[in-house]
Amino acid sequence: MVQQLETPVCIIGSGPAAHTAAIYSARAELQPILFEGWLANGIAAGGQLTTTTDVENFPGFPEGIMGGEITDKFRAQSEKFGTRIFSETVTKVDLSKRPFRVWTDEKEVTADTVIIATGAVARRLEFLGSGEVNGFWNKGISVNGFWNKGISACAVCDGAAPMFRRKPLAVIGGGDTAMEEAGFLTKYGSKVYIVHRRDELRASKIMRKRTLENPKVEMLWSSVVEEALGNERGLLSALRVKDLKTGAVRDVEVSGLFFAIGHEPASAFLGGQVKLDADGYVVTAPGTTETSVPGVFAAGDVQDKKWRQAITAAGTGCMAALQAEHFITAHGSEDAAAASAPTEATASANGALANGVPAPALAADGGMDPHPNPKTVTNPGRGGLSPVEKAAFDEEADDTPMMAVL
């Protein structure tokens, strides 16, 4: 049986944006409900931070902190102030009128406001040794994958780590993101290879020029990585690279590999009920977290395709909570007045017309309902291509200069 709950603020997400929104909402006594998901988008609760190791650029931790540890602290602080957290994935929403409705497999929540903080997932390619646990044999040694052991999807987050300093590094991609991350890595690595499966870049002209003129960058044109190889310490030590034109295979020594093939915002479950851009990011009004639906706000990487840092996500989570609180203050009283105001028919029947003038009928939600016919949309999924196929096909399609997610 589906459990029914009510809340002034329903938050969907589990990263720094979601928990900052929860902390602010709970301290404002709005009794928020937060759905952190159950392996939503293939990532544990906590979001992208759970896929990294040392976090060294979040204020308050001068010695650094593990990604999983800081997300645990986010969660504990949300709970401390009274946030109700459920490890359930939102499957559908109805944002056509207030109060909004949010469903998981076990619950139906009615909410005055909704904060979308579902993040964006870094696209990764799959090959032998690229993951966390895709074990294989290398020189007689059983080795797990090298994710977080030399392979990352965030040069800005991880590139300055001691294990990468003065070592050869590699970037996979061909768009502005890859060029920007390669340039960043040249500050720390001895050399940076850019592995690109085509013989030309789709990056902007200025980014191409800047990258190709950098003496520390070497292009591996028309090439793909077939395998990641490790050393006796279980860390990445080389890439097996295949030339797609000649078929030649060679091992390239590197200590780090960074995917720079774009991100996929977790917005499919919204079913188009809020405005999205061409890449699927939730569109918000400039300088705010307001979406195209009044009372629905978006924070963090699901609406930020440029910066994608934990600290910027937390900032927009704060903004979303404050805006939700202001929205409830402004519109909650209007809704209450609308619900209690007599209609002309009721007033006439009771002989309660003021000065003999009928009271006008008010909209049930204070005039905020642009859609008279509610429509519930279920999660349509990610389309015909798998994330891996989409990443391989679109590895250089994201041409927007941006910083990677922390």
Written account of the structure:
This protein is an alpha/beta fold and 406 residues long. It has two domains: 3-122 and 263-334, 3-Layer(bba) Sandwich (FAD/NAD(P)-binding domain); 136-261, 3-Layer(bba) Sandwich (FAD/NAD(P)-binding domain), CATH 3.50.50. It contains eight helices and 22 strands. It has helices spanning 16-27, 67-80, 155-158, 176-185, 205-212, 310-340, 344-350, 387-393, and strands spanning 3-13, 33-35, 54-55, 65-66, 84-86, 92-94, 100-103, 107-117, 120-122, 136-138, 141-143, 151-152, 168-172, 191-195, 217-220, 223-230, 236-243, 249-253, 256-259, 263-265, 296-298, 377-378. Helix 1 runs parallel beside helix 2, helix 1 (16-27) packs across helix 6 (310-340) and helix 4 packs parallel to helix 5. Mean pLDDT is 83; it is low at 135-142, 340-394 and 396-406.
Name a few traits of the molecule.
alpha/beta; single chain; FAD/NAD(P)-binding domain; disordered C terminus; eight-stranded mixed β-sheet
Quickly describe the structure:
This protein has 406 residues and is of the alpha/beta class. It is 23% helix and 24% strand. Residues 135-142, 340-394 and 396-406 have low confidence and may be disordered.
Percentage of residues assigned to helices = 10-25%
| Number of β-strand runs | 22
Number of domains: 2
CATH fold-level topology of the largest domain: FAD/NAD(P)-binding domain
CATH superfamily of the largest domain: FAD/NAD(P)-binding domain
Order of helices and strands: EHEEEHEEEEEEEEHEHEHEEEEEEEHHEH
Gyration radius from CA atoms, angstroms: 25 Å
Q: Under the CATH scheme, which class of the largest domain?
A: Alpha Beta
Mean pLDDT: 83
Biggest beta-sheet profile: 8 strands, mixed
List the uncertain runs: 135-142, 340-394, 396-406
What's the N-to-C terminus distance? 39 Å
- Can you tell me the overall shape? elongated
Continuous helix count: 8
Helix/sheet category: alpha/beta
Strand content: 15-25%
- Specify the CATH architecture of the largest domain: 3-Layer(bba) Sandwich
